[in-house]
Design goal:
The chain has helices at 3-23, 33-43, 55-70, 85-98, 112-119, 159-170, 178-187, 201-211, 229-235, 248-257, 277-295, 300-304, 321-333, 337-344, 348-374, 395-405, 433-437, 442-452, 475-489, and strands at residues 47-52, 75-80, 101-105, 124-127, 143-144, 215-221, 306-312, 376-378, 383-386, 414-419, 424-430, 460-461, 465-471. It has 490 residues and is an alpha/beta fold. The structure holds manganese (II) ion. Manganese (II) ion (MN) binds next to loops.
Length: 490
């Protein structure tokens, strides 16, 4: 990330702030306090934030809502699974009838052409990090996207990061929202540096969060810190150890041999949190030798066993940012996005409810994984699955889990379909990192196939993860076209 391009990016955000303030007729607080508050009420347009329902989208929404609240700008908030053309048509009416200003976060770039066609070039602002179709074009004044400044929206900044920078430009006090941007970036799995560290703009945002005491970084064993120890070791190691992975009974024996107790003196299950540093060392050593001696693991295996955790200071009882991003994802996917957003904005009761919802979500996920696995179909260059009981809101999550956890699913991209409204199918595509390194770009492929087939909803996404929406009747040809397109790229 070059300093000059970063400055260009920050300047661009600053220009968009001016555009935003001008559009809503915002009066700077240079008037007398009483006069000012009256003027604000008289002249400000109210804002409607539309955001994506995954954890990056929800953190984006919470950042924007907090910033607008602080600036005394009235707002309304809606969360959508995708920014489909039908919503854009409704929004067009809304702008006209209610004199609104719209902010789109974590989507909008993929729908840029349609937005321009329908909404023109004022009364809205896009804060997104998905790759624009045409990077040679000058970015519009109503559009913020890191790719125009050679900053990667896949690894260096998420939508929540873009919203955070925007919020910080509105008011430096919004630096206290930096931890939310880190939660969003983790939701989009952007901690891809060494040992789960952040790179690019994300690193700068993390520095803000550390500076004001909202996050501390801690290195620990790379397993779930939340689950009982034997479950965490059986299912969440960064690389599988055939001698213990997936087998809780064997993990119990393994722990017993190391004299690490699974329960505390009150007979409660211990988690990684509860282990002493001595116990952690013993466990790490044993896992490394298990990897080398019994499972022929390479040298990087030992390196992968330690990772960075991002401890949150004010979301008790949620210990870290990754866990919080999973919780938000569950809220969004289960249809309770507002619980997630109010948790992020500091509401403790919502956080408690969100934790309950998350438990339900975990059960739904494990059922859906089983159904997906039973319905995998293999084509020449892709694998697919569809089952009418897999909810469209979680199909992307299931697709990711399968691609990341099953060796045989890493060889070809996985394209999943789920029933949506009115005989439409939601499409989720995921590919293993190795395929992306070899040049596979699922976002591009889906966009091209949808264009070629003249599918009405535009596809969007990144090289390893993309989505689309097709009519059920288009399924067969769509699979053929995607299969062909992936073959041509290899
Ligand atoms: Mn995102």
């Amino acid at each position: 990330m070059s300093k000059i391009l970063l400055d260009d990016f920050l300047n661009a955000i600053d220009e968009r702030k001016d555009y935003f303030f001008k559009s809503i007729n915002y009066k700077k607080k240079d008037l007398k306090e009483s006069e000012n508050s009256k003027k604000n009420l008289d002249f400000k347009k109210s804002v409607h934030i539309y955001s994506h329902l995954d954890s990056d989208g929800l953190t984006s929404a919470a950042i924007l809502a907090s910033a607008l609240k602080r600036a005394d700008i009235s707002y309304q908030l809606s969360v959508l699974p995708q920014l489909e053309t039908k919503y854009i048509e409704e929004i067009k009416q809304e702008i006209k009838s209610y004199n609104r200003f719209i902010i789109f976060s974590d989507f909008g770039t993929g729908q840029l052409k349609f937005l321009k066609k329908e909404l023109g070039s004022d009364n809205y602002l896009i804060l997104d990090h998905h790759q624009p179709e045409n990077l040679k074009e000058q970015p519009d004044i109503f559009h913020v996207n890191p790719y125009y400044y050679e900053i990667s929206g896949e690894s260096e900044i998420s939508a929540a990061g873009v919203c955070y920078l925007f919020a910080k430009t509105l008011d430096p006090k919004n630096i206290d929202l930096s931890s939310l941007a880190i939660i969003g970036a983790l939701g989009d799995m952007q901690n891809k540096g060494d040992k789960g560290s952040f790179i690019g703009v994300n690193k700068l945002i993390l520095d803000d969060a550390i500076k004001i005491g909202k996050i501390t970084v801690e290195k620990d064993l790379a397993i779930s810190r939340h689950q009982p120890l034997h479950i965490a070791l059986a299912y969440s190691l960064p690389e599988k150890l055939p001698t213990i992975s997936g087998n809780e009974e064997k993990v119990k024996l393994f722990l017993k041999a190391l004299q690490i107790k699974m329960k505390n003196e009150w007979n409660e299950r211990r988690t990684l949190f509860n282990l002493s540093s001595g116990e952690k060392k013993t466990l790490l050593k044993a896992l490394i030798s298990e990897g080398f001696e019994r499972n022929n693991k390479s040298k990087d295996f030992a390196g992968k066993l330690i990772t960075n955790f991002y401890n949150l200071s004010n979301f008790d009882p949620i210990p870290d940012a990754k866990e919080m991003s999973k919780l938000l994802n569950a809220c969004g996917r289960l249809g309770f996005p507002s619980l997630g957003i109010s948790s992020l904005m500091g509401d403790k009761k919502s956080l408690q409810k969100a934790i309950e919802k998350n438990k339900i979500f975990k059960r739904e996920i494990s059922t859906a994984i089983r159904l997906a696995e039973e319905n995998i179909r293999n084509y020449q260059n892709i694998n697919t699955f569809y089952h009418n009981e897999i909810n469209e809101k979680i199909v992307g999550t299931i697709c990711s889990i399968l691609v990341h956890s099953k060796e045989e699913m890493k060889l070809k991209p996985l394209i999943a379909f789920a029933d949506s409204d009115n005989h439409f199918l939601k499409v989720s595509a995921r590919a293993d990192r190795e395929l992306v390194k070899k040049g596979l770009n699922l976002g591009k492929i889906l966009r091209e196939v949808c264009k070629k087939m003249e599918i009405i909803n535009p596809a969007g996404g990144h090289p390893p993860a993309a989505g689309a929406k097709i009519a059920s009747s288009e399924l067969k040809i769509f699979i053929e076209e995607v299969d062909k397109a992936v073959g041509e790229k290899n």
